[in-house]
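Need tokens for this chain, all 651 residues.
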Amino acid sequence: MENTYLSSIDHKSSNKEEFYQKILDGLSIGFALCELLCDQNGTPTDYRFLKVNQAFEKQSTMDIQFIVGKTIKEIYPDIESSWIDKFGSVVLSKNPIQFIDYNHNTDKYYNVHASALAGNIFVLQFQDITTEKKSEENLKRSELQYKNIFNSMFEMFQVIELVYDQDGTAIDYKYLQVNPAFENLVNKKESELVGKRAKKIFGIVEDIWINAFDRVEKTGKSESFEEYGAELNKYYSVKAWRVEKGQVAITFKDITEQKLYEKELIKAKEAAEEMDRLKSNFLANMSHEIRTPMNGILGFSDLLKTQNLTGKEQQKYIQIIQKSGVRMLNIINNIIDVSKIESGLMEVDISESNVNHHVDYIYSFFQPEIENKGMQFSLRKSLPWSKANIKTDKEKLLAILTNLVKNAIKYSDEGEIELGYIVKADFLEFYVKDTGIGIDSDRLEAIFERFIQADISDKKAFQGAGLGLSISKAFVEILGGQLWVESKKGEGSVFYFTIPFDTATKEQIESVNENNPTAPAVDIDFPVKNLKVLIVEDDEVSILVLDYMVQKMSSNILYAKNGMEAIEVCRHHSDIDLIFMDINIPLQDGYTTTRQIRQFNQEVIIIAQTANRLTGDQEKAIEAGCNAYLAKPILKEELYSTIQFFFAKAK
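Here are the structure tokens for all 651 residues:
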């Protein structure tokens, strides 16, 4: 169909038309003259290309000869409807339009300008902007990816701009960008940070941070370092690099826990090294402590062999041997106590006793030694005897008091030592006060540590194993109290400790004493005679000691060196009155041997004896069938009181 608009053109002006066509073909912008096609209802449905320039051909990638005279749907049947709709609005409204749209057939973006002419004719100009559009989309995509990475970073991130004074010295910085991790760290929103100066937000910013960021900006060299931030009391691992003039990007992460852990490791390492050093000193001191009494025991035992010794000399040597034995026994007991404490095997034996009795005993025991040094020893009790009955572990209480008084004696050469206690609510507070050399303030806590005494420069410290105070502290804490010291160098010390004031009645005390075979005072020359005794022991020295002790009450003593032999002796001598049963004997132990003897003899008194002194040994012995239990070394008074309990009562 011939177009009415074209028929109105003067065919005589073909030269002018060629002129304008050349102008259009010279344009870099695509140009097309088109006719809008509508349905019977006047709705735009398609458009036809009437004329196009060479730029159109280039940018649309379609040949001009193919395009002209065809509709867009003939060329691209699935063309986006948005193209037809937009051109239809231009023709119908006679208003020009400018837009950017995508043609999936050419996979290109076009910047289009369309305007209406007469009738359904419109002209459009367009330019291929695919490269620019895709670059823009790539940029947006990159920005989005950057934003996602930026926001999802576990590390804190910020971009700052340094603030300088008139002299060009960096004095602060302000935030240009921050990520959510940084917001969470400082507990502030982005709007509260961006554009604001750090000092205004936090009040303080250490110069080391500002100087580091300024150095990075000026040199252009990135830096990594670890630093402490006082603003939030945290440690950070930091990396900073220059973005552009005056601006620095920073990533950092909170390493506070790591740094604290490292510090704890260093402390633990130093503590372990210190403990190794102290233990080495302790072992050296322990060797000295054991060898010294052994030297006394062996040396004077050998001297006793000397002929023509006077009785006075013999007694002197024997006293030295006894003192050396007691000293070594104390060392061994302390080592055993420390082992029990460290292994958690130390048990508490709560019973009823009178606290006044205990402090009186300590006072009587140490008074001669203290007065021999020319010092005074005083005692203060706050409870009358009738109200001084308590429930506690009396052995541990006596051990604590003994250690503290011995400590006061060791470090005092003149003046006074005072022992006492006062009542404080639900606790008894004991104290041992001396006028000795005192303790440096920086060692008040250290003296309660194990092995620490061996590290004290004072020579008197080397007169002990360095365990007494640590054992006392452990005992006090086991009993539910506290131990501490107040002291000044050169002015003496006061050791305090508390135990719960758990009272008991006098009747309970007396009842306990009646059932305790070691409680009554004994007369060594008690009238028990002519007992038939079996000593079950494999150690020759122990046999000699027991043999000597029981000679006062027996002239009929039998011996067995292992469990099987003991059973045979008992079967052939059913009239045995008393058996001393060593627990650690060959073939089978004393527990098993006792059980087998009890199968055919229920009457004989069996007293267990052992050098172990471990918690639970006494209970195991009683359970096996023993009547009593004695720990080596056996004291003569303790042995006689036990025998008297069983045999004097029968008489």
